Known about the structure:
It is a single chain. The protein has 334 residues and is of the alpha+beta class. The protein has 11 helices and 9 strands. It has 2 domains: 9-105, Phosphorylase Kinase, domain 1 (2-Layer Sandwich), CATH 3.30.200; 117-333, Aminoglycoside 3'-phosphotransferase, Chain: A, domain 2, CATH 3.90.1200. The protein has helices spanning 9-16, 66-76, 117-136, 148-158, 164-182, 184-187, 224-235, 245-256, 263-267, 269-296, 311-322, and strands spanning 23-29, 37-45, 48-56, 94-96, 99-105, 191-194, 203-206, 209-213, 220-223. The longest helix has 28 residues, at 269-296.
Amino acid sequence: MNAVVPLSEDILSEAFSKYDIGTLQRSWPASNGIENSNYFIQSLINGRRCEYVLTVMEQPANSGQAYVSMMDALDQYGLPVAAPIRSISNEAVETISDKPALLQPRLSGQHTFSPTIKQICSLARFIARMHLTMQASAVELPAYPRDPSWLQANADRVLRHIPYTDQALLNDAITKTKSLLSRKDVRMLPQGMIHGDLFRDNVLFNERGLTGVLDFHHAASGFWIYDLAVVANDWCSDAEGQLNPDRTTAMLKAYHSIRPLKEQEVWFFSSFAMYAAISFWLSRLTVTLSRLSSQKDNQQRTGQVRFKNPDEFRQIVKQNARHSFYLDPRILQT
């Protein structure tokens, strides 16, 4: 993973000059960038203060060239997302510091770190509308990259660096997930555009409800139930990594009220929760080990790399392996 290198004021001013968004007032780094460099920009247009987010992409989006079309489609259907702003030369993606960059409006609201059931349900309804919106659009996205080959390749990279008990846990989880994804009935589950990264730091709320969803750089074509599994692991798990039945059931019912879940999706939900958990356990382990390796080799580093603790998802995998979350499909009808 590349270090996020701060941009100078000169470079930010140059970036600002590419857009017709008034007079530059100030700019400052956003603190929550993990894979990309994000900067807030404030401008003045006819006496009105406006704020934007400049994203310099250190890593390409999963969706590649389809990213802009996807964001435009979501925005046109009225979903609370930040579609790219076109530059003076009518480009959605500009080049800043020799890297692709996007300028988007800054959405209102704050992140929640202790979500209520009401907030979880509003996110679930957003996900259902997002899935249906992209199903109706002509945008084609590449397949979700974290397939069985990706899982095995990343496991091979990290296995010798983790304790034996974790090795056994990871190997068993990957074996089960490979078996899951090879099933004919699983391959027939509803698929389409998924966000793939719906963590709490990618959703905004105010006192009235959900105001925005961020960071679609992991969006791809995959199983719709996978998006719900990602949300369940992050939004509905307790401190021990176990899914809270009330929160998880409320989330699934809220989604079901907009896009009815198939009975088979409910059957396999717990298995997809395991799939999502090992996916993020592996990705976080890879980032952590890469950072430690760079420090050990005394490589020159500028800026600061942020990464998330992989132990959170190890615990979720452990709990899922002990006892799968059971949900009777009939509960969605109540």
